[in-house]
Amino acid sequence: MKELERHECCEGEVRFLTFPSQALGLPTKLGLFLPKAALEGKKVPVVYALAGLTCTQETFLIKANAVRYAAEHGLALVTPDTSPRGAQVAAEDEAYDLGTGAGFYVDATAQPWAAHYRMWSYVGQELPGVLEAAFPLDGERCGIMGHSMGGMGALAFGLRNPRKWKTVSAFAPICAPARVPWGQKVTETYFGGDEAQWRHYDPCLLLTEGYRTAGKILVDQGLKDEFLPILCPDLLEQAAREAGQPLELRRHKLYDHSYWFVQSFIASQILHHARGLTSQPGG
Ligand SMILES: N[C@@H](CCC(=O)N[C@@H](CSC=O)C(=O)NCC(=O)O)C(=O)O
């Protein structure tokens, strides 16, 4: 693990790191906020924040205004990159919604993508192990959140592995990727046309298959979101209702898809994780 940057922030530290990922078969970068207690060597709860299409390990930390709330509640934040970089796949830099910056938090099954596009294994397995060995992060108190493509990832990780991800939330997640153009493009490329792969990652399909999170899922969605028709929050609500999965879906009339929206509701999403991961009131 090599440190690229370190900045004092909200009595803790924001660090940018790189290491050679075995899952991705490439070096990868990530952001890490360590609150004051972690700098003093105490094990702290941690929330992974997964960003959306076109983002990097920096985007969420810079734009979501999450650090001050994480610091307030003594939470660490981890912000992975959104795809492998430099995989040398033809076409990986041609569109914003495929390839670089668009890993979709899945493991590709079709070549040439399958060699490096393995964000599911990287974020879900490799990264927590590497970080928990290197920093005072409590592997028993992990939460996961995300925006858009990252919201989809957060829901999928939370549903598939509730023992690891004790708290789950999302901003404007892609709720039914198998049914919408973004996901169909993934099917044609990363999955080589095998639509059935979505059964591992599509939040609505996972709910239908019986997967559940440990506690209530919190989702914020803007109603002026330019991507609303392909995010399908109504389908998530219906799938959760039918599955008996507790879900609080908060619809916000005036908000779009941007980080201005994320920033507006980040305090209560961080509180949701703090309550679930610490002994704070209401937890
Ligand atoms: N018009 C954009 C489209 C990409 C975009 O809106 N990306 C969103 C996430 S969308 C789903 O995952 C985002 O978070 N962008 C970064 C930002 O700083 O807002 C384009 O063509 O780039």
TrEMBL record:
Keyword Hydrolase belongs to the record? yes
Q: What's its top-level EC category?
A: hydrolase
Q: What is its EC number?
A: 3.1.2.12
The alphabetized list of GO BP terms reads: formaldehyde catabolic process
Q: Which domain of life is it from?
A: Bacteria
Question: What organism is this sequence from?
Answer: Oecophyllibacter saccharovorans
Active site (catalytic residues): 148, 225, 257
Q: What does this protein do?
A: Serine hydrolase involved in the detoxification of formaldehyde.
What protein name does the entry list?
Answer: S-formylglutathione hydrolase
Keyword field contains Secreted: no
